[in-house]
Every structure is written in C-alpha cells, then in structure tokens.
C-alpha cells in the first residue's frame, strides 16, 4: 500500500481524515497515478505567502529554499508517493489569479488551466465569489480559518 510510509506526525494531522490517494482520485489526477509516481516530476505552482510558504534567501537575494506547512505537506506527499517536485511561480503580481476580459485567467489558476502546473499551494481558499471554483478543482479541505 503506497501510504504505508506515512510518518506518525502526518497521521495525527487533519490529513488523516482524507487519505492523499483518495484526494487525488476525487480530483481527477488519476492520469499520473500508479502504485507510485515513479519519480515523475510534479510541477507545483506557488509563491511566497507566509506562514504557508516562506522563502529563505541568501545575502544576494537568491532563493535558497522554501519552507512552511504547505511546502512540508507537498514534500511529505512526494516522499510517500515517490515523485519529485519542481516549483514554478506565477508572473510577478499575479499570485492566485483573476479572470481577464477575454475569459482566461492569469496567476495560479491560469497556470493550472493551461497545464503549465500540476497542482498549487499558496493558502488557496475555496471560493465561488472569485469564480475559481468553476475553473479549477480543489482537494478536500485540510485547513480552516474561522471568522471571529
């Protein structure tokens, strides 16, 4: 079973309620599923958005590494399902994306829609207000934010 390598800390997390394999099947990502991903490169679209995604840079401003809870999630899934991660970013200022006058999208939503990325992490909220819900698929929610 591919999930046998899940670390105990991950089993105690909210993700335990929705196994990654089930999430991928529900979202239509089955085109790349097998017993494992066989080191297939998965293009993950993201940008710096603390505390979900944090960038560590060197003295020259060059990106050394990414970290944060969403990065940890992707890295754990990569270890469990045997895939490699290639991070890509939307154009500066585009972030999550907005619908353009011609009906296409920019940002993360646009990159997913054109197939330039396979999945995204960037504190993305499921929202029908922005129209993203009609354009992209979401996993089962794994984090909640309350209004107080």
From TrEMBL:
<keyword id="KW-0407">Ion channel</keyword>
<protein>
    <recommendedName>
        <fullName>Ionotropic glutamate receptor L-glutamate and glycine-binding domain-containing protein</fullName>
    </recommendedName>
</protein>
<keyword id="KW-0675">Receptor</keyword>
<dbReference type="Pfam" id="PF10613">
    <property type="entry name" value="Lig_chan-Glu_bd"/>
</dbReference>
<keyword id="KW-0813">Transport</keyword>
<dbReference type="GO" id="GO:0015276">
    <property type="term" value="F:ligand-gated monoatomic ion channel activity"/>
</dbReference>
<dbReference type="GO" id="GO:0016020">
    <property type="term" value="C:membrane"/>
</dbReference>
<dbReference type="InterPro" id="IPR019594">
    <property type="entry name" value="Glu/Gly-bd"/>
</dbReference>
<keyword id="KW-0812">Transmembrane</keyword>
<keyword id="KW-0325">Glycoprotein</keyword>
<keyword id="KW-1071">Ligand-gated ion channel</keyword>
<keyword id="KW-0472">Membrane</keyword>
<keyword id="KW-1133">Transmembrane helix</keyword>
<keyword id="KW-0406">Ion transport</keyword>
<feature type="domain" description="Ionotropic glutamate receptor L-glutamate and glycine-binding">
    <location>
        <begin position="41"/>
        <end position="143"/>
    </location>
</feature>
């Amino acid at each position: 079973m591919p999930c046998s390598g899940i670390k105990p800390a991950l089993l105690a997390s909210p993700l335990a309620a929705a196994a990654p394999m089930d999430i991928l099947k529900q979202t239509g990502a089955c085109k790349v599923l097998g017993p494992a991903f066989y080191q297939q490169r998965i293009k993950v679209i993201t940008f710096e958005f603390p505390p979900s995604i944090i960038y560590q840079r060197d003295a020259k401003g060059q990106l050394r590494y990414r970290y944060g809870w969403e990065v940890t999630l992707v890295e754990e899934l990569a270890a469990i399902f045997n895939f490699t991660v290639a991070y890509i970013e939307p154009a500066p200022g585009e972030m999550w994306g907005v619908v353009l006058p011609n009906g296409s999208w920019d940002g993360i939503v646009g990159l997913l829609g054109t197939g330039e990325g396979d999945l995204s992490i960037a504190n993305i909220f499921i929202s029908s207000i922005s129209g993203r819900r009609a354009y992209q698929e979401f996993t089962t929610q794994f984090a909640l934010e309350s209004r107080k």
